[in-house]
Structure formats: C-alpha cells, structure tokens
Amino acid sequence: MARAVTNQRKAINTAFAWAIGLLIFFPILWTILTSFKTEAEAIASPPYFLFFDWTLENYAVVQERSNYARYLWNSIVIAGGSTLLGVIIAVPAAWSMAFVPSKRTKDILMWMLSTKMLPAVGVLYPIYLIFIKMGLLDTKIGLVVVLMLINLPIIVWMLYTYFREIPGEILEAARIDGATLREEILYVLTPMAIPGIASTILLNVILAWNEAFWTLNLTAAKAGPLTAFIASYSSPEGLFYAKLSAASTMAIAPILILGWFSQKQLVRGLTFGAVK
Amino acid sequence: MGRITLDQVTKSFGSVQVIPPLDLTIEDGEFTVFVGPSGCGKSTLLRLIAGLEDISSGQIRIDKQDATHVPPAKRGLAMVFQSYALYPHMSVRKNIAFPLKMAQMDQAEIDRRVNGAAEVLNLTDYLDRRPGQLSGGQRQRVAIGRAIVREPAAFLFDEPLSNLDAALRVGMRLEISELHKRLKTTMIYVTHDQVEAMTMADRIVVLQAGVIEQVGSPLELYREPRNLFVAGFIGSPRMNFIEGPEAAKYDAHTIGIRPEHIAVAEGDGAWSGVVGVAEHLGSDTFFHIHETGLAETITVRADGEVGFNHGDRITLSPRTDMIHRFDASGLRIA
Amino acid sequence: MATKASRSAARLMMAPAVVLLLGWMLVPLIMTLIFSFKKYLPLRGGDLGWVGFDNYVRFVTSSAFWPAVQATLMIVGGVLAITVIFGVLLAMLLDQPMWGQGVVRILVIAPFFVMPTVSALVWKNMFMDPVNGVFAHLWKAFGAEPIQWLTQASLPSIIIIVAWQWLPFATLILLTAIQSLDGEQLEAAEMDGAPPLKRFWYIVLPHLGRAITVVVLIQTIFLLGIFAEIFVTTQGSFGTKTLTYLIFQRVLESQNVGLGSAGGVYAIILANIVAIFLMRIVGKNLDA
C-alpha cells in the first residue's frame, strides 16, 4: 500500500510545510520573543528577531504590578472546577446512555447538544440578573457553575462515545461476578475508560480556560481569570509590547502545552463524533 | 445443586415476542446445549437464565427456589461470554479473583482458589500478565477460571468458541468437556454450531424462533428427529429431502435420507443421477448428484476411495430402514 | 436491552445532567422571551410594562441593524472561506510524507489554543499597529505606506484575526478526514488513468464533503457568537458591530433590556437554523 517516495519529493514537502507551519506559528513565536526584550527593543525599527539582550524583567514587572498570580489562580479554579464538576455529573449520565440505551437516548443526546448551540448573548441578561440576585457576580463559584453548564453537553457526549467503545459484556460479567452498580462503575468501567476520561478533562480544561464571553461579562477584579486579565491590556497598557507579551505568554503557555497532548481528542470532542 | 427450571417463560422486546411461553428443565450436573440458527433466541434464553434480562412473564427456578426477580450476582451462576469479557486493566490473577473480591471473601481463601483454578487450567505461569498479552485460547481459559472459582450452581457459556480459529476450537471443545466430566456441575452452552452441540452435549435443546423444536440426547436427535427442521439442522452434511411420488411410495409427504445412508454404484440401484461436484476429504468423499428426478441435488457420503468423477452417471441405493418419513405439516411419522 | 433494575438506575443517574441542562436552557430562555415583550430599562425606571412586538420591530428597524447583519455575514463568510480553502490545502500538505511532520502539525494547530483575548490583543498591537506593528515594518521595508488596519480595513482585520484562530480547527478536522481515505481508492483511480487534479476533484473532495460540512456548521455557530475579538480591538466601531456585539451593547452598555432581548431572540432563531442542519448530520452518525 505505502509507496516509496523519493527523497527529493519529501524534501520539497518538508520545506513547504515547515515554511507554512512557521508562518502560522509566527504570531505566537513573536509574542514569546518579544516578552524577553526591553520595551525599547520591542518597538525598534527594523525589529530585532533573535539578537537582543534577553531579559526576564517583563515577567517580574507583570507579576508585581498586576497581581498575575491571582488571575492565574482564578483561571485554574474556574477551568479545573467546572471540568471536574462536569465530569462527576456526566459520568453516570454517559454510563446510562451508553449501556442502558432506550428509545429516547438519542433524543436526549441531541437535545443536550442543542443547548450548546444556544447563543450566549441571547441569554446574557437573564444570567446577569440571576447572578446579581444570587450574589454570584464576580465570584469564582458562579463562573464554575456557568462554564460547567456550557461544557456539560460536550463532556457527556465525549464520555458517551468513549464508553460506547467498551463492550457491554464486560460490565455484564462484572454484574454476574457480584459487583454492585457502584462497584461496576468504580472498579470496571472507570479504569477502562481512564484514557477517555482524561482526554475529556483535557479538552474541557482548555475550552474553559479560553472561554471569553461569560468570563468577561460576569467578572470584575475579584474573580476575573486570565482572559479578563489580558483584556485589561486593551487600554493604553497594551502599548507596552514587552509587558503585554510577557503577560500573554504566561496566559497561554499552560494551555499550549496541554493542547499539544489533546490534538486527537479535539477532533472528536468538537465535532461530536461526526468526523472520524 | 444446579437444577434449573423454566416455567411458562416468555420474553418480549416492545411488542415483539421473541420467546413464546416456554417450559424447560435442566437437570443437575447435565451438559445442556442450546443450538439453533442465529436469531433463534438461544442467547436471549441464556441471558434470561443469567438474569441479564428480565423475563416478561413466567418463572425461573434454580434448585427449587424462585429466581425470577433475583439479580444476576445472587443467582449463583457463572457465565463465560463470547468475547470472554475479561477486564483489560487487571492481571489474570485479579480477573479470576474479581468475583471472590466482590463477595468479600478473605484473601487467603481467594489465593487458594485462584491458584487452584490456575493449576487446573494451566494458567499458573500467566497469572501476572494482562489479558492483552494472552493468546485467544489462554483468554478463554481465564474466562473459564473466573467462572470456576465461584463454585457456581451452573456454568453458562455463550458461544465461547466462536472467536477461536478452527484448530484451537477443537482443542478447547475437549477441554470444556473434560472440565465438565471432572466438576460434574450443570453447564448450559449456547452455540450455532451443530458439531459442537453433538460432540459436547448430554442433552441438546434445538430452538427456532424462540420455540423449542426438540429436546434430547445427540443420538436421539440424530436417529429420530421430531420434524423437518431438526432433521435438517442436525447432521452434516445435511439430510436429503425428497417430496412427490417417491415420498408417496413410503406413505409420506416428505421423506429424508442422510447422505451416509445412501450407497453409490455403477450397476443397478433404486435411483440414478449424474455426479456434479465430488469433494474428496480423504477419509470420505461427498458426491453432489444431479438429474436424479427426486430433488435438485442429492448429497451422498461415500468412502474416501470411491472414485467417481464429474459427469459420471451412477446409481444410488438408499438404506430403506434409515428413511425418515414426515407428514405435510413437517412432523415425523412414527 | 437490560433489566428493569438497571433501567431505573439509569434514569436516576441521568437525572442530574438532564435537570441541570433543562434549567440552564429554560429559565434564561423564558426570561429573555418575557423581557423581549416589555419596555425594560433597569437604570431608567425598570419594568415599564408590556409593549407587544415593539422591541422586535424597533430592533430590526434601528439604523444599527442592517450594518450589523452585514458585518456579521462578512465576518462569518470571510472566515469560513479562508479556513475551508486553506484548511483543505493545508490538510493535504500535512498528509504528505515529510520530515518532522509531528512538529509541523503542532505549529499549525497552536493558534487554536491561544485564548481569544490574547490573540486579539497581540494582533491588534504587535502586528496591526500602524506605527510599531510588524506589518508596518514590513510595509515600510518595501517602501509602502503602512495601513491603518483596524480603522481603515477594520472588517478584513477582524477576519484575519479570527481566521488565524480557526484555521487550525478546520485543518485538523480535514486532516483527520483525509487520513481516513482509503489509499487503495486513489491507487485504483490512478490505474484508471485519472491525473492528480482529477483524483483530487473526483475522489478526495467528495470524500471530504461531510467533514467540510461539519466544519462549516460548527464554525458558523461559534463565529456567530464571537465577542472577545471585537471587545478588545474595535469595541464595535468602524463597522465591526456584529449582531452579537449589538445585542451586548443594548443589554449591558445602554441597559435597554427589552430591546436587547428581542435581539437575543433573533440570535437564537438564527443559531437554531444552522443548528438543525448540524444536528441532522450528527444524528445520522449516531445511528451508524
């Protein structure tokens, strides 16, 4: 099936693909490089590419001035909390749909997906109002709940597709072997589904980390995550390129690293299994 | 210790009744095989006995106790699945120990039983491997081991050999039969392969469309099939059926004659025909004979040394004492 | 296909997810519907009573409506065109044998993981700034007058930023689809005498049809709702006010909740029209 490809052909492919890859990656690379420049070097014309005096000063300044650590902590709590809460609620639901399907299972799944399609702006004010009334505005717990809800359909859906790959006979064997429902899920299903659960968590942490509608509209100084922290640079502070770059690099680095591990799950999670 | 009784059991999925009212008793220590074409309800019947499906009406008794509403784990049955259903994340040892752990047995007893089962099944060297590192036959043994350690009232097998290759299947068939001889525990075995049924069973239950067509020992079924379906299903190659004037001679609507009960020759005989395909198996030769005027093809099983070829005109002599007679509704005429 | 016991357990275990999502969907939706039929100005008198379809009519007849529809369509259409065309090309390139394929893939996918506020700000300040941006340097290097990107070419600028974010998504999905194409099919076509371009047109493209549809539908749903990119760049000025942004301004900035809610209902209807097509494809796949 596989055919030998000449090295010349391969070299052309390689050069071409790397050129395009680097072009697409360039804005990120440029941001990272700029974060190590002084402000003067950052706006020098013509710009410095690699040969400048590398400095970590910007990172120190960003950390000091804007309480970066607090925003980071908020992001971690909100992304992690909403994902974990979502998984805890979704695992039993996905188990039900995958292993005890009924005539309505498909309808329920489709309906869950449809809630994901609801445009956020259409329900902005009601949520805003509910948040004010319940004292949830600018709290981490409020955002944890909202982000959990907007990602719950994806979590259920992904877990469902992973669970469906586990043969039902194994769970039946466990049932005959005397496992209770709790033991069946805890000792047999969950360990077998660990890779699937891990990918689900990974993708949803990424989605929650980058969510930028609710996090911008429902938080202020106290519970704001990194999305809000960066948005505050749209004011004149953004003109300090090196500092903007340092702040940006810190905001995206954790997710870039996580993201590289989750390429495959990305396709599955975001197309709801419609592309394999 | 393992007598299973089904009393007027039915099963419906929605409005479709897959098992009409059915009565069956499986005696303690018996090796019973449910056999039938795919979709005949044999696996469903097994799952009803296991408790993996609810019965729609009727009663299931295990050792005289009503088990109809008892959950699967409490029925004292063990099951070996078609896919073996081994837990991929556990070692062989943990797989076999799992039901005992669920029963909260103490560790010393668990170890004793697991080691015992491993010895019986030649798995001692593989106890610390994962199922993924085992061959098909070894996985099969682990699944059986997991069933044995529970010392169940009965073993349920759901087409356990269908995922193995032909050579291994014959070996495992023997192992399961020997296991039954040694344990003397009730076994219920589901298969679509009539050879497995014939070679392993004490008693065969032939099913079609959820209905029991006949229950009996392998030889009873072979010698006195109760109707056309059983006659055609049991025995390989298949029994020849002849209708029309030839059947009328025997006062029947249809007559059946097994391929091994017809002799072929060049000289005189009751019937004649032309050899189509001759399948030489070495020990036997199967002749598929056309232009007999009786049926489209008559299959004959002859000795391996009989040397007819394609196109030869030959004569056929049925053993008249081996002719089975059936009436218009397909039932055997005694 | 299971016992009654497991079926009732299943229903119980599904309940939390179903109830939560039902509440999440119905409560705000009903509130939005109610507000949309009211004159409701929280800072200027609060609930001023029912007004029928007034808000719906006013939202559509306001001078900001049609420009917003136009801006929305331009952004969605522009981004879709760029991401699908370049996505197909890029996916085909990445499918070729080469050295360092894994690394190139990572480089191409990376923008998807950058949070929207970061990518919008980086593009706005470090690339599109008419004095110090990289583009300005580039233009000057060729002796051209730098472009005032976000004021003179505001829509194309936004489209570039958003397309950069979504190109990885399209590429990744199309690459997955290309890799599932049976190599023997292409070899058969080659034996049948089809040159490369025809093989692409008659074999590869039809194979990608479904994946392209999925990319278009999913991106449309997300693109209709883009917010952060506009929020941190133009704040809706210079003709970049999309429907989403217009509704946001009505609701939170001018606190005209009734009017904004009517706009929200329009947005919901619009999203649902796209969603129906997407759900059909997903649903078909569920049966398979």
TrEMBL record, chain A:
Protein family: Belongs to the binding-protein-dependent transport system permease family.
SUPFAM superfamilies: MetI-like
Xref: InterPro entries: BP-dep_ABC_trans_perm, MetI-like, MetI-like_sf
Occurrences of domain ABC transmembrane type-1 (ranges): 72-262
Broad class of the protein's primary localization: membrane
Cell compartment(s), UniProt: Cell membrane
BP term (GO), one: transmembrane transport
Transport among keywords: yes
Membrane topology: Multi-pass membrane protein
Organism of derivation: Pseudooceanicola nitratireducens
Keywords from the UniProt entry: Cell membrane, Membrane, Transmembrane, Transmembrane helix, Transport
Name listed for the protein in its UniProt record: Sorbitol ABC transporter membrane protein /mannitol ABC transporter membrane protein
An annotated GO cellular component: plasma membrane
One Pfam family matching this protein: BPD_transp_1
PANTHER family: INNER MEMBRANE ABC TRANSPORTER PERMEASE PROTEIN YCJP (PTHR32243:SF18), MALTOSE TRANSPORT SYSTEM PERMEASE-RELATED (PTHR32243)
Transmembrane portions of the chain: 12-33, 71-96, 108-131, 143-163, 184-209, 240-261
UniProtKB/TrEMBL annotation, chain B:
Domain ABC transporter, residue spans: 4-234
One MF annotation (Gene Ontology) recorded for this entry: ABC-type maltose transporter activity
SUPFAM superfamilies per UniProt: MOP-like (SSF50331), P-loop containing nucleoside triphosphate hydrolases (SSF52540)
Domain of life: Bacteria
InterPro entries: AAA+_ATPase, ABC_transporter-like_ATP-bd, ABC_transporter-like_CS, ABC_transpr_MalK-like, ABC_transpr_MalK/UgpC-like, Mo/tungstate-bd_C_term_dom, NA-bd_OB-fold, P-loop_NTPase
Cellular component terms per the entry's GO annotation: ATP-binding cassette (ABC) transporter complex, substrate-binding subunit-containing; maltose transport complex
Transmembrane segments: none
Claim: Nucleotide-binding is one of the keywords in the record: yes
Protein name as it appears in the record: Sorbitol ABC transporter ATP-binding protein /mannitol ABC transporter ATP-binding protein
Organism name: Pseudooceanicola nitratireducens
Automatic annotation (TrEMBL), chain C:
Pfam families in the cross-refs: BPD_transp_1 (PF00528)
Localization, UniProt: Cell membrane
Segments crossing the lipid bilayer: 12-37, 64-91, 103-123, 158-179, 200-228, 263-282
Keyword Nuclease: no
InterPro entries: ABC_transporter_permease (IPR051393), MetI-like (IPR000515), MetI-like_sf (IPR035906)
Protein's membrane topology: Multi-pass membrane protein
Span of domain ABC transmembrane type-1: 69-278
Signal peptide: none
Main location class: membrane
Gene Ontology CC annotations of this record: plasma membrane
Any Gene Ontology biological process: transmembrane transport
UniProt KW keywords: Cell membrane, Membrane, Transmembrane, Transmembrane helix, Transport
Family label: Belongs to the binding-protein-dependent transport system permease family.
Annotated protein name in UniProt: Sorbitol ABC transporter membrane protein /mannitol ABC transporter membrane protein
